[in-house]
Amino acid sequence: MDDQKKVTELYHTLHSHLPSEPALRVKTIQSLLVEKGLIQEATIDSWVQAYSEDIGPRRGAEVIAKAWLEPDFKQALLADAAQAVDELGLMGKAVGHLKAVENTDAVHNMVVCTLCSCYPFALLGIAPDWYKKAAYRSRAVREPRQVLREFGVELADEITVRVYDSTAELRYLVIPQRPAGTEDFTAAQLADLVTRNAMIGTQRELSVEVA
Ligand code: FE
């Protein structure tokens, strides 16, 4: 093998193992925080574990099911979602303020973070990749109906689309419409119907078929 080939091969080997630049930065910040005694490795590990394994959209789904079943809770959720959810012991300090926005026959709500990826982690877990992509972040505000169509949501013209732009201070949770034919469902059965995308607003109709 000639030298040039060797160099090319080495280059590719290195690049397939080196983390991308943001990942490197995160690792550096983490190392510094640990080194300066500001945070412990174990704390970081437990946060990663909590948000990737223990906390997921099921939490949000339970909140939605409760809102469908209990009008008082729904009113409290719409009035001050952070407080209502905090009273369920779900919120912790990780979310900041939260606003719940309700879909109706006339309105469809959709959530984006145009700046980065602000998301109600404590209720929905880790954000999906598409939520963080520049395409979604810019197009959700420019052409929400087209984006929704790509997610399989065909909205009638008379339905108003409201797009909410999240920030670190204020995040949003969409309350989807309760599907017909679920009058006898328990809270757990209702929660089974609520998907992550429905709570972001990239899905509108919920299926009553439980997987
Ligand atoms: Fe953000």
List keywords for this structure.
binds fe (iii) ion, globular, mainly alpha, 4 strands, 12 helices, single chain, 211 residues
What does this structure look like?
The chain has 211 residues and is mainly α. It starts with a helix and ends in an 11-residue tail after the last helix. Helix 4 (57-69) packs across helix 5 (71-79), helix 4 (57-69) crosses helix 11 and helix 5 crosses helix 6. The chain has two domains: 2-39; 57-200, Nitrile Hydratase, Chain A (Alpha-Beta Complex). It is globular. The model has no long low-confidence stretch (mean pLDDT 89). Helices cover 52% and strands 11% of the residues. The structure holds fe (iii) ion. The site of fe (iii) ion (FE) has 6 residues, from loops. Residues 113, 115-118, 166 line the site of fe (iii) ion (FE).
What is the CATH fold-level name of the largest domain? Nitrile Hydratase, Chain A
What is the H level of CATH, i.e. the homologous superfamily of the largest domain?
Nitrile hydratase alpha /Thiocyanate hydrolase gamma
Q: Could you tell me which ligands this complex binds, including any ions or cofactors?
A: fe (iii) ion
Average of the residue pLDDT scores = 89
What fraction of residues sit in β-strands?
A: 5-15%
Strand order of the largest sheet: 1-4
Approximate helicity band: 40-55%
